[in-house]
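Support request, please re-run this one:
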Amino acid sequence: KHRFGTNIFFLTITSLKEEMLATYPLLSNVEFEKRYPSTLVVYLTKRLPIAWVLSSGYFYAVDETGRVVDESLESNSPLLEFDVGILTLGSDVQDRRVRSGIGILRSLGSEVKISHIFEKDSSTIQARMGNTDIFFSQTGDIEEKAATLQIIIEGFRIKGTLPTVIDLRHEKPIITN
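Re-run finished. Output below.
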């Protein structure tokens, strides 16, 4: 009561929202509803994992921004296997390989079921989708390559079979059956 004062009419919601999001990194959003004369209802939205990062033998769930939101393995979400050291709950993963993997997943959406993304070599990220291996360059526009991949996959699904290799490291994709 002391923190909010005695009159919710004068409560500044914007600064309170910013403070809560800064204090609780596992929240993606906070909404408030003032019910006059004296009730403040708070709606909290938790960050949802998009993938799991396997690093230094530990599994970390990360959301679409790269923030660590859990520390266990209880999901069938895609696995990003990159050694980035020990991570802490609520921290943001800065590693460009993990960021690229998250970018791939975010760009492809839920229609394309990537199961595993890992570093093939120092210049290549490899993704696995069923029996298909997909190669991305670690440099360049990942979202653009993911859009190309979506078009390729859609074309092959119409035909009924997927290729065994899709190489997106070059200007023009190389597809191998």
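The mean pLDDT is 89. Residues 68 and 83 are 15 Å apart (CA to CA).
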